[in-house]
Amino acid sequence: MQIIESTTTLPYSGITATIGFFDGVHAGHRALLSDVKRTSTDMGLVSGVITFREHPKKILTGEPMPLLTSLDERIEQLAATGIDYCILLDFSHDIARLSAQEFIRYIRDYFHVRHLVIGYDHRFGHNRNETPVDYMRYGAELGVSISQSNACMPAGQKVSSSVIRRLLTDGKVDEASRLLSYHYTLRGCVVAGQQIGRTIGFPTANIVCCGTEKLIPATGAYAVRVTTDAGKSFGGMLNIGTRPTVHLSDCKQSIEVHIFNFNDTIYGQELQIEFVKYLRPERRMDDLNALHTQLLQDKTLAEEILQAL
Known about the structure:
Layout: E1 2-4, E2 15-19, H1 27-43, E3 46-52, H2 56-61, H3 71-80, E4 85-89, H4 93-97, H5 100-111, E5 113-118, H6 132-142, E6 145-148, H7 161-169, H8 173-180, E7 185-191, H9 196-199, E8 205-209, E9 220-227, E10 233-241, E11 254-259, E12 270-280, H10 288-307
Parallel strand pairs: 1-4, 2-3, 2-5, 3-4, 5-6
Antiparallel strand pairs: 7-8, 7-12, 8-11, 9-10, 9-12, 10-11
Helix pairs in contact: 5-6, 7-8
């Protein structure tokens, strides 16, 4: 997939495209992108996706919002769909003020969009009361054909980035993964911790996430898959929380992962963590012996879950 950031030298004369932020590039997005690829083939055009560096809501409100994917992850997931081009725009108040008709003219003139595929519930332009029928009429006037993709409803459930965010904040990472079509992932750097886990036989890597806007799932323990800088994958169990057994007063949230059958020193390295299944809520144990017993139970359960994949 080639990234287009300038209109000066486009490598194609016409393109079939869709537009959206595509946070998570979930199953619904992938169904839409499949329609784009199929239509582009039928029309003898290249395929493309028009997206934005920053979430439009952040630009319009000035407030950050938790995201399922960083920009790099989003581009990586879009590329995996087989789309030919990604047109990467900076969302702005000027773009927000464009009418749907003006926006269609804009992508026609600057990016040579000849056919636009829109999602089943997608709206664009400053008048959100307009419908796909209106878009199709504007497109016909401007020489841009427009079609609408069908809804993606696995097991009768609506797929959307907001639904997936809600599932993750409830700890339902396996349900979120089903709608994403892959395991939800965090990437982070390993930093030094207090090494208390090491004293009870469960050394952990303390993770500082890459990107401040990535959504952190609910507090608690999880079965996870961990991939190291060297590209090796291991099972593990991860805890998100404030470590109440060893911190009796208020403590900042931490992310700690115990990697199974792994003893390497990895300070400063980046890990990729895939959330597979929620194990239990975080709770305070009576002492370190009780914590050790609980961690043994967590490990047995996590290993069973991971072996069943």
